[in-house]
Amino acid sequence: MKEAIVFIHGLTGNSRAFKKQLGYYDENYRTFAYDLIGHGDDKGKPVEFTLEKLTGQLEDLFEKEKIEKAHICTISYGCYPAAIFAARHQEKVASLCFIGGHYNSDSPLSAVLKHYWDHDYGSYQEWLKHYSHDLFPKSNLVDPYAIISTRVYYKYGYDLHEKVLKEAISHRLHYDLRADLMKLHIPVLWIMGDHDQLFKSSIADLQDVIPHAIYKELPHSGHAASMFRPYAFRRMYENFLVQVKNS
Question: Is residue 143 situated within a structural domain?
Answer without folding.
Answer: no
